[in-house]
Amino acid sequence: MICMNSKLSVQGKKIRELRKAKGLSSDKLAEIVGTAGAYIREIELGKSQPSLRMLEKIAQALGVSVAELLTSPEEKKDKLGQLEEITDTVLLPVYRGVPAGPFREISDAEIVDYLSVPRRALKGIPKDYTAWIEVIGDSMSPEIEHGDLVLVADGSWVSINNGDRVIAILDGEATLKRFYDKGDYIILQPINHNYEPMMISKEKLDEMPLYLYKVLAVLKRY
User: Fold this and answer.
1) DSSP 16
2) How far lies 157's CA from each of 50, 107, 188, 210, in Å?
3) 133 and 148 in contact (C-beta within 8 Å)?
4) Rounded average pLDDT over 114-127
5) Same CATH topology for 12-87 and 89-219?
6) pTM of the model
7) Picking from 70-74, 155-159, 215-219, which range would have the lowest pLDDT averaged per residue?
8) Residue 63 backbone zone (phi > 0: left; psi -120 to 50: alpha; other: beta)
9) What is the dihedral of CA 6, 176, 103, 105, to 10 degrees?
10) Of the CATH numbers 3.20.20.70, 2.10.109.10, 2.40.50.40, 3.90.1150.10, which one belongs to the domain with range 89-219?
11) Stronger pLDDT, 76 or 203, i.e. the higher one
12) Domain boundaries of the chain, sorted by first residue
């Protein structure tokens, strides 16, 4: 799992100076990054420490790198490993949402957010062929729960082996399952025993092509 919730000490005073230089009130900055003005003021006073995700949003709004908001050169050095993950990232859309249950029709998927991911997590895959997907349903529970995010890559860019977790799209409908190729048919296998596996014959696949997106990582939301 890619962790987006670890904390770093930041220069609240620096954030305040940059905010004022841009002519932004604390409430306006809060509106831009999607939080409360009171929380921004607490960060600036050193009373609260933002998550990496929030720190990235603040840095982007102020037009600086995350590294520039760290407390001191010493801390920058101590946090080098984390900084490499933060700064060498790509921003990917979050789509809502692919069902972890029966096949469900999807069209014009809605982008609900953007999240960054360390570039190395993409394993050389171009960012345009990757995305975050918000999961709906519990057929992959407890491994992947309702509301979790999965980082996926287009199956044309990765090898998909038996047992891999995939988003399978057939005739405009999608589901999240484990994939097994049995020769004459494929199985889309849930984790939750309350759901039955789905078996799709190769004859049906000749009529309706199957598109697969491999799950590269899972981000737990709750």
Assistant:
1) H
2) 35, 22, 20, 15
3) no
4) 84
5) no
6) 0.59
7) 70-74
8) left
9) 50
10) 2.10.109.10
11) 203
12) 12-87, 89-219
Positions of E strands within 23-145? 89-99, 104-105, 110-118, 130-136
Q: Residue 76 has what pLDDT?
A: 45
Q: Which residue has the tokens 């990757």?
A: 130
- The SS3 call for residue 208 is coil
Q: Which among 26, 79, 139, 214 is annotated as catalytic?
A: 139
Q: What is the b/e burial string over 29-49, where b = at least 16 CB atoms within 10 angstroms of the residue's CB?
A: bbeebebeeebbbbbbeeebe
Distance between CA atoms of residues 67 and 87, nearest Å = 8
The CATH class that applies to domain 12-87 reads mainly alpha
Strands 130-136 and 89-99: parallel
| H or E segment to which residue 212 belongs | strand 210-219
Pick from 56, 63, 60, 51: which is nearest to 5 by CA? Answer: 51
CA distance 194 to 66: 45
Q: Which two tokens stand for residue 86?
A: 């933060």
**Average pLDDT of every residue of the chain:** 81
139 in active site: yes
Q: What residue ranges in 137-184 does DSSP mark as E strands?
A: 149-154, 165-170, 173-181
Residues 6+ apart with CB under 8 A from 17: none
Which entry of 177, 182, 201, 220 is annotated as an active-site residue? 177
